[in-house]
Design a protein that fits this description.
Layout (H helix, E strand, L loop, with lengths): L4 E3 L1 H30 L8 H25 L1 E3 L10
Length: 85
């Protein structure tokens, strides 16, 4: 059984906007980082290239996480997301 995420409408909207940002602007930025790092020479001994690839991996993981949350989300009223004390 898939995990279900209880989120508010505002949280859902924020996740959608953040996902759109990550899939467009941020992916372009990371692609430029990789391209620039490759211009420095051999990728085998290139710390900038390694860092750019690591950033790409983190970005892809974050995108996948947001997609999973959105696909398994259940919208709840604002007051039902509060945890009892």
């Amino acid at each position: 059984m898939e995990q279900q995420y209880k989120i508010t409408k505002a949280q859902h909207t924020w996740l959608q906007q953040e996902l759109a940002y990550l899939q467009t602007f941020r992916q372009q930025e990371v692609a430029q980082m990789i391209e620039e790092a490759l211009s420095y020479g051999d990728p085998e001994n290139n710390a900038e290239y390694d860092a750019a690839l690591l950033e790409k991996q983190r970005l892809e993981e974050r995108i996948a996480e947001y997609q999973k949350i959105l696909s398994c989300a259940r919208i709840v009223p604002e007051d039902s997301t509060q945890t009892p004390e």
